[in-house]
Amino acid sequence: RIQGPLTGKKVVVTAGPTREYIDPVRFISNPSSGKMGIAMADAARALGADVTLLHGPITEKIPDRIQTKSFISADDLFELMKDHQDADIVIKSAAVSDFKPVTRSNQKEKKDRAKLSVELERNPDILSWLGEHKKKGQVLIGFAMETENLMENARAKLEKKNLDWICANSLSEKGSGFASDTNTIHLIGHERQLEFTGSKKEIASQILQEIFGS
Ligand code: C5P
Q1: ipTM of the complex
Q2: DSSP strand E in the chain: where?
Q3: CA distance 95 to 109
Q4: Into which family does the record put it (predicted)?
């Protein structure tokens, strides 16, 4: 057992993309690698926390020292999250699909037609749900990725989703974003705001040090 500021705390971290299936062989997803979430999970473990990493379909290696559970769709993740709702700290780095196909066909869609329409419906916003059901003392940390108006949108999400912190990362900043090993994150809280640049590993431990260190 590691002694640190998070010893005895239950931490749940989510990482990676979701997949929303159209038919048995096709899905809607995004390029999330899970690297940032894995780094957050490992950094929390190094501070003494009892960590569970919930991850989507990723190829990135997860260190054996981290306990994991896997999900495919946003609905799967929502179910897993409800099982871990009692966590002291929730870090939501997963890139959850906002929409899913209304129906999923059991057979592969044939290409003997010029067009195929797929109707999409909203997925549950898991982090908003967690914010609505936040228990006393629980810390909710969200992520925000935007292509424009990053800081304004991130600040709005911090309030709207009832979060304690939001990690804003821009897709347009150099050395940032989906599969990169490096990142720039603007950590925004209700009272302070900081910027971190470096490897995802370094940033993850700096963020947790800033929030929970001493
Ligand atoms: O609103 P937006 O999707 O930009 O917010 C991003 C944050 O919300 C991330 O922490 C992400 O994991 C979470 N999220 C979620 N459920 C969704 C969409 C996003 O938990 N359906």
Answers
A1: 0.94
A2: 10-15, 20-23, 26-28, 50-55, 67-70, 89-92, 99-101, 120-122, 139-146, 165-170, 182-189, 193-199
A3: 26
A4: In the N-terminal section; belongs to the HFCD (homo-oligomeric flavin containing Cys decarboxylase) superfamily.
Matching CATH number, 10-96+120-212, of 3.10.300.10, 1.10.10.10, 3.30.565.10, 3.40.50.10300: 3.40.50.10300
Distance (angstroms) between ligand 1 centre and the Cα of 111 equals 33
| Cβ contact 182:199 at 8 Å | yes
For the chain, give the mean pLDDT.
95
- Which residues, judged by CB distance below 6 Å to any ligand atom, belong to the binding site of ligand 1? 74, 92, 94, 96, 98, 123, 125-127, 142-144, 157
> Is 149 a catalytic site residue?
no
Find residue 108's DSSP bridge partners.
Answer: none
Q: Which of 13, 30, 40, 92 most suits a substitution to test ligand 1, by most atoms within 8 Å of the C-beta?
A: 92
Mean pLDDT in residue range 109-116: 92
Residue recorded with tokens 């800033």? 210
Q: Which residues are annotated as a binding site for CTP?
A: 98, 108, 124-127, 143, 157, 161
What residue segments make up the domains of the chain, in order of their start? Answer: 10-96+120-212
